[in-house]
Design goal:
The structure is a homodimer of 360-residue chains.
Chain A lengths: L9 H8 L3 H8 L7 H13 L6 H8 L4 E6 L5 H16 L3 E6 L15 H10 L4 E4 L11 H13 L2 E5 L8 E4 L6 H10 L5 E4 L6 H16 L9 E2 L5 H14 L6 E4 L2 H13 L9 E4 L14 E4 L2 H16 L13 E3 L15
Parallel strand pairs in A: 1-2, 1-3, 3-4, 4-5, 6-7, 6-8, 8-9, 9-10
Antiparallel strand pairs in A: 10-11
Helix pairs in contact in A: 1-2, 1-3, 2-3, 5-12, 6-7, 10-11
Chain A binds a DNA duplex (30 and 30 nucleotides) through helix 2 and helix 4.
Chain lengths: 360, 360
DNA sequence: CTTTTTCATGGTATCGGTATCAAAGCCATT
DNA sequence: AATGGCTTTGATACCGATACCATGAAAAAG
């Protein structure tokens, strides 16, 4: 049986075919400078032995590896995994494979405590000679970025294309895709006001993280513009997961004197935790408190009650991220403007679809 | 400023240091055959220019890339992402990076239709010369495995270590970690019976997939052993996500004449969908129907009601998977026996923790 | 029928490291 | 001073592809 062997090289195929390595290379790369006869013969041998050229050797003198690095803080977070799905799809289409780097930064509740510094991954990306790096979240999302982090990031950015999904940081040798982080908050508030909710709280997210800071700023600003009194005891931050939402909501209910009539959560996981905390206090959603969220997760359509939330168009963001990176690698373009406007998904947790109209 | 440059090689460092490349290589690899003085000098230059050796060139003659391939069907599925987290953690500890391969096989509801054949990824893994491959799920989980798939899998298995988390398939040149797929079903049924539930249905999972087939078999077998009548109209399969749970549950409620008193779901996402379907029919969980699940997801603790479910010890499985693969690469051992017993987490959706005791 | 052009093929340097071998320098011993 | 052993260093083949140049054969042009 003409079986495949380990460590088949172009030299062995040349030997088996009775031609030179140059010819084998030509056949592999579909060069026109091979006779039909030779090509057919070599192709037969290649198929027979299931030969396929080593990407490592190819990378050696082409200086590109057809590999991309993707850095995320936590792939169990639906926000990141949804982005990843889209990225993976396009990467394969364009012939790239992806090295996924999970930094464990930002602490989910998964029992893993120590984060892997992004600097470690930056160096790894450089050593592995990936063709480009995509950063979806992590240390770059901090309000204040340390000099040493920035230095490491810039060192990488000077050597290979780096695309960052988030919001621009000054003096970075990277391409930024500016997410409209705070968009939609105003729509959320207006929707709640229209339902008769005026005492609105904000739950979840982490202090010092740009998403949280920006959304919180949009929250307070919108209230101010509408001349609605702002009560700091209605704000309770923690983190981005269901247990955090539970904890933050429970804390909010304890620290405030008057129960809020509505809560805006940083994302659907937090909203789920918050609802659970409200229910555990013997209150009802949406009858007593309306709960809405800023970032749609797939599960939000199946909770009790279903979540009113914002669609951040994550598939679109994922697609734009990978396309921008590939463009940067091919020097096709110099930065792409993305325009995504979060849009309101009205379901049950605000009360609207259940026909409630509240008075206060 | 002594700044770093692009494409720094060992040759340039040799030139800058005034020694030979051999010496640079020795310094990098901590060889004892370098004088302290030379070592210090070269180290200074390396640090000054931020030189780090190319992994590609190293792979060229060491024949290992310090890279692993991980193949999953859908990383947005918490089962896979939880496994991945553990795998990533240990991989980095042992100096490996991970190429993640998402096959889109098994259709979630994410709008992506066409799966990427695993064969495509197998070839990619071979070409990229990864040191080992870990398959967490996908085509291997089918009840019947096609010859062409098996052939491609075996070809890969003969060249590099391949570890598969699931259940053994005959005549495969891979190491299997046999998950106890059907374990815990019996515990679930006994728990429901103790609560007074006898008319038990099964919801979710996909026909022709081993997890589903095995759990369904354990389900019917346990009922048979207990001499409980088995009603095929109480079984409704679909897939592994919340929308599938919703759909399957709605269908079950339509197709059966007598409403079931309990439902066992394939996992927590499906359970969430099923609960939603039950509630939409105007029934209550757990008062009218108890709902339990076979596979714990983190969100299950924050649903309304909280889910009674089985802990499959996914962290343990992830850890064993990566450790087994690394052992196989190092020829340290020949297969590891894993012992994980799913254990029952009693919460609200069955009724037990809410103090219900049902009669029938 | 010779010369020129085109086509097909082979030989070899190269990418950036590591491994192996050879050799030079240094010190102590005889 | 010559010898031997140890430390330290340098030169070069090699890993598996591709790129470039050279060459031989066949076809077209003179």
């Amino acid at each position: 049986m003409p079986d495949d062997q380990k460590n088949l090289t172009i030299y062995k195929i040349a030997e088996l075919s009775g031609v030179s390595v140059s010819t084998i290379s030509r056949v592999i790369n579909n060069s026109p400078y091979v006779s039909a006869k030779t090509k057919a013969h070599v192709t037969d041998i290649i198929n027979k032995y299931h030969f396929s050229p080593s990407s490592v050797a190819r990378a050696m003198n082409s200086n590109h590896t057809q590999t991309l690095g993707v850095i995320v803080s936590d792939i169990t977070n639906p926000y990141f995994s949804e982005l990843y799905l889209e990225i993976q799809r396009y990467a394969v289409d364009f012939g790239y494979s992806i090295i996924l780097c999970n930094t464990f930064y930002g602490g989910s509740n998964h029992g893993v405590s120590d984060a892997i510094p992004e600097k470690t991954y930056f160096q790894m990306m450089l050593d592995k000679k990936v063709d480009g790096v995509l950063i979806l979240g992590g240390e770059i999302d901090r309000d204040t970025i340390s000099d040493s982090y920035k230095e490491a990031l810039n060192r990488m950015g000077r050597q290979i294309p780096v695309v960052i999904l988030g919001q621009s940081v000054p003096d970075c040798s990277c391409t930024f895709l500016n997410r409209n982080i705070s968009g939609g908050i105003s729509a959320l508030i207006h929707h709640l006001l229209a339902l008769g909710r005026r005492r609105i709280g904000f739950v979840g997210g982490e202090e010092g993280i740009r998403t949280t800071t920006a959304r919180l700023a949009a929250f307070t600003q919108t209230l101010k513009n509408l001349a609605i009194s702002f009560d700091p005891s209605l704000i309770s931050l923690s983190n981005y997961y269901a247990p955090d939402g539970y904890r933050a909501m429970a804390k909010l209910l304890e620290q405030t004197e008057t129960t809020p009539s509505a809560i805006i959560c940083i994302n659907d996981a937090v909203a789920q935790g918050a609802i659970r905390a409200i229910v555990d206090k013997g209150l009802r959603v949406p009858e007593d408190i309306s709960v809405v969220s800023c970032d749609q997760f797939p599960s939000g359509e199946y909770t009790c009650p279903r979540l009113t939330t914002l669609d951040q168009q994550n598939s679109y963001l994922g697609r734009m991220s990978i396309m921008t990176l590939i463009s940067a690698i091919n020097h096709d373009s110099e930065g792409i403007n993305i325009s995504h406007e979060p849009h309101l998904i009205i379901r049950e947790s605000c009360g609207a679809r259940l026909g409630f109209q509240f008075e206060r």
